[in-house]
Structure formats: structure tokens, C-alpha cells
């Protein structure tokens, strides 16, 4: 886990009964050496006093956008710039709606607009408020804006009901914060090796599945675990490359020294790849990108109608990220994967040509002992005038061998 010492964390407490848990969170953060400043909304002060949070954070609480005394000490813009991370905790339905729609009429909403610090939202509300279509729409807007959503959990609620909407416990929020700093700082805390076959190279890699939303609660996806891509990212880092890993939804730990960018859908993935491709010498498309996505994403949960036994969802093709990368000028040395269930060699060679890439790594996913979700893999790599087969091995071992091959082919291409 990443160290939290000397991190600057701005907690924004909004109105909800779960606010009573925030002093515990502040105390734990301070135990880890984190500097904490607290902002409270008017609603929050109905549940907990500023004095409590001042006592545990060691700093006066900010609660007013237009308070001349507070502005003279540390103004709201300064506060917005000061933070390494902003956590809205608990985030009420109203706070989520205001954030999603860009309000700027109190300290909380203005701060969140006036910052380029990452913002994490920790929802806490009654289960029906959480599942309400308006809240779900707002949460999707926040996700699309790049906000992190932590929770909610399921369980008994202060209102006596049971369901999704409970705030994560302070210990779980602390873990999320540690994971967040682990992911974003690993590049700085552990530089790439100063020697190795890929020393000085920038490598961009996609991994994991993508999720294509059908409605606020359902999606299309596949069984990719992300293990092969994460193992390749780790092996490339060990070989001296600066690695950026664009990961679809998967719960694997970020390899040490690798910069990770989390995405959900194929279009998110393409956007993230487009943002980082300018610096890349090598691109590896290892993600199992969904080929299609629903033409329309329903704003509300789709209901079963009486007497209808069939449902038709119209799909549209997703962008081919790998082919798009390979068509750029200049294009990085591009490597793809081909997961096939039959006629593996022919399909792989055809894909190598069609996508305009330099190397393709093919595996037979009809065998459950290898490929998707398994720990081992057997592959054959093809390039324009050669091929190489690799014996069954753990994905970690195979990743090292594949990175060796990729670095050799890359060297020959420049
Ligand atoms: O066409 P197919 O999905 O079989 O190709 C697999 C290769 O193409 C993988 O390397 C995958 O990461 C990449 N791909 C992509 N964007 C898509 C589909 C596949 O980058 N939309």
C-alpha cells in the first residue's frame, strides 16, 4: 500500500447521517501522516459540528464561500489548488446532483469546479434515493467526467431499511485512498530500471475487458481477467520501459512502477489511448475490447413487460483501437493479440495484415486451461516474415518471454 504521509487531502463533508463517521476517518488519516483540511456544507452541520472536525484535523473547518476572514487565511481557490486529492464524504444525493451539473453557489461546489485535483465521491443515502434513475444518471455523469465513485455498500441503513446506499466504513475509505495514491504515484516512487532491453522506451498497453452500458445497472462485457496485460506491463517495466497501462474494469493490483489509467467502455479506452499515444514507442493492444456497444443507453433501468419474451438491443461497432493506433503517423511499433477458438494461425496472420500491425500474439481460447481467466497461457507470435511458438507457461513467465521478443522486433524495426 502507498504511504499516506505528507499527502494533502481535502475532505468535503455533505449533509447525511453518515457524516458522524468522518471524524474517525480524519483521525486515521492523520495517524498515517496525512495533512487533512475539512470543508462542510450547511447540511453537514446539521449532523456534526465544525468544532469536532476542527479538533481532529487540527485546522479550522471551511464552510463559507463568502467569508472574508476565511478567504484572507486560505481562500477557496488556494484550497482547491492545495489538495492532492479531494474526497466528498459522505456524498448525499443532492451533493452528487450538484457536482454532476457543475453548480458553483457554495464553497463545496465552487471548490470542485476550481480544482484540477482528482475528486473521489463516497455516496451515502437511502437505498431508494441511490437507485433512483436521477441519482444513477448523475453518477454516470460523474464517472464520465473522471470522478472516482467509492461505494456505496449494501446493508442496514440508518433509516431502518436494508439495501445499497450505505457509506463505506472509514477503514474501507482509507484503503481506497491508499490504493489511489499507490496507482498514481508508483511511477514516481519507483523509476524504470536504468538498463534492460526496453530502457528509454515509452510503452502503452491496454488490458482487461471493456464494459458497454445497456442501462444504469446492466452492461455487455467478456471474461477477460486482465492477467496477461498486467503481466506484460510488469515485464516491460522490469525491462526498463516507462509503462502506461490503460485498464478496463478488473480488480488486479497495479504492477509496481506502472502508471495505470482506469477506463470502463471501449470509447473511454480509445480516449485514454489517444491521450497517451503521442509519447509511445511501442503499443500493445492486449485488452479484450467489446466489439459492439448498445446504440442507446437507457437512462433508467429497463423493465420486463408482461407478455414479451424477447428483447432486441441494437448494437453498433466499437472503434478498433489497435487498428486506429497502427494507422497514426508516426505510429508506434504495434502489437496485437488474437484470441481464437479455431484456425488460429490463419486468423492471426489475416489480423496482422488487416490491422496494419507489426506483431500478433495468438492463443487458442477454446482450451479452458489456457487463455481467458486462467493463470497459464500458450501462444504463437507471428510477424511479417516469421513466427515463434511458446510452450505453456505462467502468464508472468510468458510475459517476460514476449517482452524479449517484442524488444527484439522493435529494435529491428528502427
Ligand atoms: O479483432 P479482434 O478483436 O480479434 O482483435 C484483437 C486485437 O485487437 C487485440 O489486440 C485487441 O486488444 C485489439 N482490439 C482493439 N479494439 C477493438 C477490438 C480489438 O484494440 N475494438
Summarize the structure.
With 414 residues, this protein is of the alpha/beta class. Helices cover 35% and strands 24% of the residues. Helix 1 runs parallel beside helix 2 and helix 5 (93-100) crosses helix 8.
Structure in words:
- This protein is an alpha/beta fold.
- The protein is 35% helix and 24% strand.
- It has helices spanning 22-31, 50-57, 68-74, 76-82, 93-100, 107-113, 127-131, 133-144, 170-189, 227-238, 266-276, 321-326, 344-354, 395-413; strands at 8-13, 35-40, 85-91, 119-123, 148-149, 153-156, 162-166, 202-207, 212-215, 218-220, 242-247, 259-262, 282-285, 292-294, 315-317, 333-340, 359-364, 376-383, 386-394.
- It is globular.
- The chain starts with 7 loop residues before the first strand and ends with a helix.
- Cytidine-5'-monophosphate binds at residues 206, 266, 285-287, 289, 318-322, 336-338, 351.
- Cytidine-5'-monophosphate (C5P) binds at residues 206, 266, 285-287, 289, 318-322, 336-338, 351.
List keywords for this structure.
Rossmann fold; single chain; alpha/beta; 414 residues; 35% helix; 8-stranded mixed β-sheet; binds cytidine-5'-monophosphate; 5-stranded parallel β-sheet
Amino acid at each position: 500500500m502507498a504511504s499516506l504521509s505528507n499527502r494533502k487531502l481535502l475532505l468535503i463533508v455533505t449533509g447525511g447521517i453518515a457524516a458522524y463517521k468522518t471524524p474517525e476517518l480524519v483521525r486515521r488519516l492523520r495517524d498515517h501522516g496525512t495533512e487533512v483540511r475539512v470543508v462542510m456544507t450547511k447540511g453537514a452541520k446539521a449532523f456534526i459540528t465544525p468544532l469536532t472536525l476542527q479538533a481532529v484535523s487540527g485546522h479550522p473547518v471551511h464552510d463559507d464561500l463568502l467569508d472574508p476572514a476565511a478567504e484572507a487565511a486560505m481562500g477557496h481557490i488556494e484550497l482547491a489548488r492545495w489538495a492532492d486529492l479531494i474526497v466528498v464524504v459522505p456524498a448525499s444525493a443532492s451533493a452528487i446532483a450538484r457536482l454532476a451539473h457543475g453548480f458553483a453557489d457554495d464553497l463545496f461546489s465552487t471548490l470542485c469546479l476550481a480544482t484540477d485535483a482528482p475528486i473521489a465521491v463516497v455516496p451515502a443515502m437511502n437505498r431508494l434515493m441511490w437507485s433512483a434513475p436521477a441519482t444513477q444518471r448523475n453518477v454516470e455523469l460523474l464517472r464520465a467526467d473522471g470522478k472516482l465513485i467509492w461505494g456505496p455498500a449494501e446493508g442496514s441503513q440508518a433509516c431502518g431499511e436494508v439495501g445499497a446506499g450505505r457509506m463505506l466504513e472509514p477503514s474501507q475509505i482509507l484503503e481506497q485512498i491508499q490504493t489511489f495514491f499507490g496507482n498514481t504515484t508508483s511511477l514516481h516512487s519507483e523509476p524504470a530500471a536504468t538498463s534492460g532491453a526496453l530502457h528509454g522506451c515509452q510503452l502503452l498497453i491496454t488490458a482487461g475487458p471493456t464494459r458497454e452500458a445497456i442501462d444504469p445497472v446492466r452492461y455487455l462485457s467478456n471474461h477477460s481477467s486482465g492477467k496477461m496485460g498486467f503481466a506484460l506491463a510488469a515485464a516491460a517495466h522490469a525491462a526498463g520501459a516507462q509503462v502506461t497501462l490503460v485498464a478496463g474494469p478488473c480488480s488486479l493490483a497495479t504492477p509496481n512502477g506502472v502508471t495505470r489509467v482506469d477506463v470502463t467502455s471501449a470509447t473511454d479506452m480509445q480516449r485514454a489511448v489517444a491521450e497517451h499515444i503521442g509519447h509511445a514507442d511501442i503499443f500493445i493492444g492486449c485488452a479484450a475490447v467489446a466489439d459492439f456497444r448498445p446504440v442507446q443507453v437507457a437512462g433508467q433501468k429497463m423493465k420486463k413487460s408482461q407478455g414479451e419474451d424477447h428483447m432486441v438491443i441494437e448494437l453498433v461497432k466499437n472503434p478498433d483501437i489497435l487498428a486506429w493506433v497502427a494507422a497514426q503517423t508516426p505510429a508506434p511499433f504495434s502489437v496485437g493479440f488474437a484470441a481464437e477458438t479455431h484456425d488460429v494461425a490463419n486468423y492471426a496472420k489475416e489480423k496482422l495484415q488487416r490491422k496494419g500491425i507489426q506483431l500478433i500474439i495468438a492463443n487458442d481460447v477454446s482450451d479452458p486451461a489456457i487463455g481467458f481467466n486462467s493463470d497459464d497461457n500458450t501462444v504463437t507470435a507471428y510477424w511479417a516474415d516469421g513466427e515463434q511458438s511458446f510452450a505453456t507457461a505462467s502468464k508472468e513467465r510468458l510475459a517476460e518471454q514476449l517482452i524479449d521478443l517484442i524488444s527484439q522486433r522493435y529494435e529491428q524495426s528502427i
